[in-house]
Write a structure and sequence with these properties.
Blueprint: H1 2-36, H2 38-56, H3 59-79, H4 87-105, H5 118-135, H6 139-144, H7 146-173, H8 186-197, H9 203-212, H10 216-241, H11 250-285, H12 300-321, H13 326-339, H14 347-378, H15 385-413, H16 420-428, H17 434-441, H18 456-483, H19 510-514, H20 516-532, H21 539-567, H22 588-621, H23 625-635
Length: about 625
C-alpha cells in the first residue's frame, strides 16, 4: 500500500512538473509573440479593455476609454506608417464597434452622452480645429495659390451643391427617391442636401499627404480648399435655410448668391480685425520682453495662450452673432495671429503655445471621428434606398463637375499649370466628414406636426457617404498617388503646409522677397526664362499676373510702412548695412541689398550690351534659355 501511495505521489509529481514545463513553454512562446508583435498586442489588449469597460462600466468611463483607444491606435498607425488605414478611419471604426456594444447593452435606449451634438461640434470642437489650421499654416504656399484655392472653395462649392442638389431633385421627380422622406419645400431641401454634402473633410487625406510627401501644389490646393470649403458650405446652407418657407425663383437664387458673398466678406473682415486687435495688444504688452521687475510666478507663455485662445473664440462668437460665418472668421484670425502676434511673444511661447493648439486640434479631430462612428450604431436611422444607392455616385459626379472645369479655368491665368494627374488626385480627395453630418442634423423637419427632428433619411444617407468616403477614399489615397505618379519614396524635397522650422516666417525669404523693386526685377528674369523655354503667357494669364503683382506690390508698401511697425511681425532681415534691415531705421538692410543688386546689374549691363550681338544669337541657337533670359532682362 505504501508503495502504491508513493507511486501515486510520484505520478502526481511528474504530472505537475509536466504541466509546469508546459506552462513555462507557453509563457515563453507568448513572450516571444509579444516581443515580436508588442504594439499589435498592446493595441488588441487596450481594445479588449475598452470594450469590457463599455460593457460593464459606467458611461463616462466608457467614453473616456473609447477615446483613449483611438489615441493609442492612431499612434500605432503613424508609428508603423500604415497608409491604408488612417487615424481618422481607425477612430471611425472604433466608434462603430463601441456603438454596437453600447447599443446591445442598453437595449436601444442610448444615453444622450453618446449622441452627436451639433452645438458641441460647432462651438466646441470645430473652432479649435480650424483655428489651429490657421495658426500653423505655411502662409507663403497658401497665398501663392490663394486665387486658385478661392476659385475651388467659393465657386466650386456652389457648383457641387447645385449639381448634387439638382441631381437629387431629379431622382425625386422620377420616383427613385421617396417624396415622403422630404419636407414641404422639396426643391430647396435638395439644394440644402447638396450644400452639406459639398463640405469636404481634409483630415484623412492630409494625413496621407503629410506622410508620403505629396507635391506642394497638391497639398496646398486640397488643404486650402477643404478649410475654406467647410466655411463656405456652412454659409451657403444657412443662407438657403432662410428661404425654406418661400418659393425658390431666379430672384431668390441671385439673392442667395449676393447674401453669400456679403457674409463671406464680412466673416473675413471680422477675423482679420480680431487678429489685428490681438497683435496690437501683444505688442504693447511686451510679452516677448517682460523686463526684470516681474513677479516670481510670472508665466508669459500662459498669458500668451490665454490671449490667443480668447481672441480666436471671440472672433468666432462675434461672427456667429452678427450672422456671419464663425468658421471663416476664426480661420483668418489664426492666419493673422500667426503673421503678427507670433513675433510679439517670447521664444518659449512660440513653441509651446502653437504646438499646444496643434495637439488640442488633434484631440478634437479624433473625438469627432469617434463620435461620428458611434452614430452608425446608436442613432435612429431611416433608410431611403434611392438616397443611399445614388448618394455617393452623385457626390463623386458633383466633385468632378467642380474640379476639372475650374482647373481648366485656373490654368488659363496661372503661370504654373495644374497637371492632369494633380487634377485627378484633387478630385478624388473629396472626403465628407463631421461638418456634413452636423449640417444634416440641422435640416428642417420633414414632419413638424409629428415632432420629427430634421430629416432622418438625409441624416442616414449623409452618414453612409461619410463612412464610405473616409474609409474608402481615405485608404485609396496612397494607391491612387502611386498610380498617377505623385508619390516617390526616394524624393524628400516635398514639404507639407505645417513645416515650421527655424525660418518660421514663410512670407519672405531674404531681401529679394522683402523689396518690391528687387522682386519686380526678378520677375522680369523669370518671365524671360519662361518665354525662352516656350512657356510664355497668354492674354488672360498676362493680365491676371499684372493685376496680382500690382496688388502684392501695393500691399508690400502698406505692410512694411504701417502694419508691421504697428502690429508687429518678423523684422526685415539683412546681411549688410548698419541699419540692420529694420523698417523703423530707414530700411538699411534692404537699402544695402537693393544697392548691391543694382550694382551687380549695372556692372553686367555694359558687358551684356557689348556681347549681345556676338554671343546672344549663339546662345539662343544652342538652346540656352538662361542666357536668353539674362539678355532679355538686360535689354528691358
Amino acid at each position: 500500500m505504501l508503495l502504491c501511495a508513493s507511486e501515486r505521489r510520484g505520478g502526481l509529481g511528474n504530472r505537475f512538473f509536466l504541466l509546469l514545463r508546459l506552462l513555462l513553454r507557453s509563457a515563453l512562446c507568448i513572450n516571444a509573440l509579444i516581443t515580436k508583435f508588442s504594439d499589435l498586442f498592446l493595441c488588441a489588449l487596450s481594445l479588449c479593455y475598452v470594450f469590457c469597460v463599455i460593457y460593464y462600466g459606467k458611461k463616462i468611463q466608457a467614453a473616456t476609454f473609447m477615446f483613449s483607444a483611438c489615441i493609442i491606435v492612431s499612434f500605432l498607425i503613424q508609428r508603423f506608417n500604415w497608409t491604408y488605414l488612417q487615424p481618422s478611419g481607425a477612430s471611425l471604426c472604433i466608434g462603430m464597434i463601441s456603438g454596437a456594444i453600447i447599443n446591445s447593452t442598453m437595449h436601444d435606449k442610448v444615453d444622450r452622452l453618446f449622441m452627436f451634438s451639433p452645438n458641441a461640434f460647432f462651438y466646441g470642437f470645430l473652432p479649435i480645429i480650424i483655428y489651429s489650421a490657421g495658426l500653423n499654416l505655411q502662409r507663403k504656399n497658401f497665398f501663392q495659390d490663394f486665387w486658385t484655392i478661392s476659385l475651388f472653395a467659393f465657386v466650386g462649392t456652389v457648383i457641387s451643391a447645385f449639381v448634387f442638389g439638382l441631381g437629387t431633385w431629379f431622382l425625386t421627380l422620377i420616383g427613385i427617391i421617396s417624396k415622403k422622406h422630404l419636407g414641404s419645400n422639396r426643391f430647396l431641401e435638395c439644394l440644402m442636401y447638396g450644400t452639406l454634402i459639398s463640405a469636404t473633410d481634409p483630415v484623412a487625406t492630409l494625413s496621407v499627404f503629410a506622410d508620403v510627401k505629396a507635391p506642394p501644389l497638391l497639398y496646398n490646393l486640397v488643404f486650402g480648399e477643404s478649410v475654406l470649403n467647410d466655411a463656405v458650405a456652412v454659409v451657403l446652407f444657412r443662407t438657403l435655410e432662410k428661404f425654406y418657407s418661400v418659393d425658390f425663383t431666379i430672384k431668390t437664387f441671385f439673392t442667395v448668391i449676393f447674401q453669400f458673398i456679403g457674409v463671406s466678406i464680412g466673416s473675413m473682415t471680422i477675423g482679420i480685425l480680431c487678429a489685428l486687435v490681438c497683435a496690437f495688444t501683444t505688442k504693447r504688452l511686451g510679452l516677448n520682453d517682460p523686463g526684470v521687475h516681474v513677479a516670481a510666478s510670472y508665466n508669459g507663455t500662459a498669458y500668451t495662450f490665454a490671449l490667443l485662445l480668447l481672441d480666436g473664440y471671440f472672433s468666432y462668437v462675434i461672427a456667429e452673432n452678427v450672422g456671419c460665418s464663425g468658421i471663416m472668421s476664426i480661420f483668418f484670425t489664426g492666419i493673422g495671429n500667426a503673421h503678427y502676434s507670433y513675433h510679439n511673444v517670447g521664444a518659449e511661447a512660440k513653441v509651446a503655445v502653437f504646438k499646444s493648439f496643434e495637439a488640442i486640434a488633434f484631440l478634437s479631430e479624433t473625438f469627432v471621428f469617434a463620435y461620428l462612428g458611434l452614430q452608425v450604431a446608436t442613432a435612429p436611422h431611416v433608410f431611403d434606398v434611392g438616397m443611399i444607392l445614388f448618394g455617393f455616385p452623385l457626390a463623386l459626379a458633383s466633385r468632378f463637375a467642380n474640379i476639372f472645369p475650374l482647373s481648366k479655368v485656373a490654368n488659363e491665368v496661372r503661370t504654373e499649370k495644374i497637371p492632369e494627374n494633380i487634377q485627378k488626385m484633387h478630385a478624388a480627395c473629396g472626403l465628407r466628414g463631421a461638418v456634413a453630418y452636423a449640417l444634416a442634423l440641422a435640416m428642417p423637419s420633414t414632419n413638424p406636426s409629428a415632432n420629427v427632428r430634421g430629416s432622418p433619411a438625409i441624416e442616414t444617407a449623409t452618414l453612409v457617404i461619410c463612412v464610405i468616403s473616409t474609409l474608402g477614399l481615405g485608404g485609396a489615397c496612397l494607391p491612387l498617388m502611386q498610380k498617377w505618379k505623385l508619390h516617390d519614396p526616394d524624393d524628400v524635397s516635398h514639404s507639407n503646409a505645417f513645416d515650421r522650422g527655424d525660418n518660421d516666417d514663410d512670407d519672405n525669404d531674404g531681401e529679394i522677397a522683402n523689396d518690391p523693386v528687387m522682386r519686380a526685377e526678378m520677375r522680369a528674369i523669370q518671365d524671360a526664362e519662361r518665354a525662352a523655354m516656350g512657356g510664355g503667357f497668354n492674354h488672360w494669364s498676362r493680365n491676371f499676373t499684372k493685376v496680382k503683382y500690382f496688388f502684392f506690390d501695393t500691399w508690400d508698401k502698406v505692410e512694411y510702412g504701417f502694419m508691421r511697425p504697428t502690429f508687429g511681425g518678423r523684422p526685415i532681415g539683412g546681411s549688410g548695412g548698419a541699419g540692420g534691415g529694420g523698417v523703423g531705421s530707414g530700411g538699411g538692410g534692404v537699402g544695402v541689398g537693393r544697392a548691391a543688386f543694382s550694382r551687380l546689374q549695372n556692372e553686367d549691363e555694359d558687358e551684356d550690351a557689348n556681347a549681345t550681338n556676338n554671343t546672344g544669337s549663339d546662345n539662343v541657337e544652342l538652346g540656352n534659355p538662361v542666357a536668353f533670359a539674362a539678355n532679355a532682362a538686360a535689354n528691358k
